């Protein structure tokens, strides 16, 4: 098991687990698998940031990664 720091923003925050500051996952978990395990529909996630850099769904999470997930943003 590894620990990550999880931040879900705006409408995704309702999927945030209680222990998100130090969330445990299995080694070699992809961002896509994390999203699935959290029960978030994949089309609800538009932007993925790991340690402040944009990443894709295939990124393999590492110990102490800081994960930020953002929904699509609209406005006008």
From TrEMBL:
It holds the Pfam family Ub-Mut7C. Residues 3-71 form the Ubiquitin Mut7-C domain. Gene3D superfamilies: 3.10.20.30. InterPro entries: Beta-grasp_dom_sf, Mopterin_synth/thiamin_S_b, Ub_Mut7C. It comes from the Bacteria. This is Sulfur carrier protein ThiS (Thiamine biosynthesis). It comes from Desulfobacula phenolica.
